[in-house]
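Dear H.,

Thanks for agreeing to be a second pair of eyes. The structure we're designing against is below in token form, covering all 180 positions.
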């Protein structure tokens, strides 16, 4: 489920899924066929390969996609990667298409961090994550004073980001309120 709903626009063949899940191809096939029968995944055939992909038309797609993202998906991986910087970070959150759960196969991850961390430190923590999630990550890093100053001067970009959907990784809404 994490693989299929974590990359909903990408079809996977059974061996890819079984390797990712750490199970046999036969077990994966049985489970995937069941998921296809109830409409959670789409099944397609090309030559000898059978492919499975998350079914975006399923009435529960958005809920499963959001649950996977929050538990075993991108957001949890990012939280873990940024944990070493947590003590020096007031708030870190994802915004944009990923936060709105409207991403597609080419979407990147937009990340905002406010605290006493440098862009180089953040990039060092995120480099292995990009390979794991097969998406580029675009961090924007501000010190608390830079963030407050830009907001006070009416920075359009920051105001738009703050008005939009966000998935908090470090800190909480109260911390974000203290920073802005």
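And this is the sequence the design step returned. I haven't edited it by hand at all.
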């Amino acid at each position: 489920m994490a693989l299929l709903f974590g990359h909903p626009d990408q079809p996977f063949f059974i061996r890819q899924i079984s390797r990712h899940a750490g199970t046999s191809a036969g077990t994966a096939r049985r489970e995937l066929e069941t998921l296809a029968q109830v409409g959670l995944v789409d099944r397609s055939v090309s030559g000898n390969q059978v492919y499975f992909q998350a079914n975006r038309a399923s009435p529960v797609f958005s809920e499963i996609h959001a649950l996977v993202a929050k538990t075993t998906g991108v957001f949890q991986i990012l939280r873990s990667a940024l944990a070493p910087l947590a003590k020096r970070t007031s708030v870190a959150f994802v915004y944009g298409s990923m936060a709105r759960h409207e991403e597609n196969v080419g979407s990147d991850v937009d990340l905002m961090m406010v605290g006493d961390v440098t862009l180089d430190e953040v990039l060092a923590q995120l480099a292995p994550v990009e390979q794991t999630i097969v998406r580029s990550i675009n961090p924007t890093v501000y010190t608390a004073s830079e963030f407050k100053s830009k907001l006070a001067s009416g920075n359009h970009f920051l105001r738009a980001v703050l008005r939009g959907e966000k998935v908090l990784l470090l800190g909480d809404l109260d911390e974000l309120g203290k920073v802005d």
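Two observations from my side: DSSP finds nine helices and seven strands in the chain. The domain at 73-179 is CATH 3.30.460.10 (Beta Polymerase; domain 2).

Warmly,
E.
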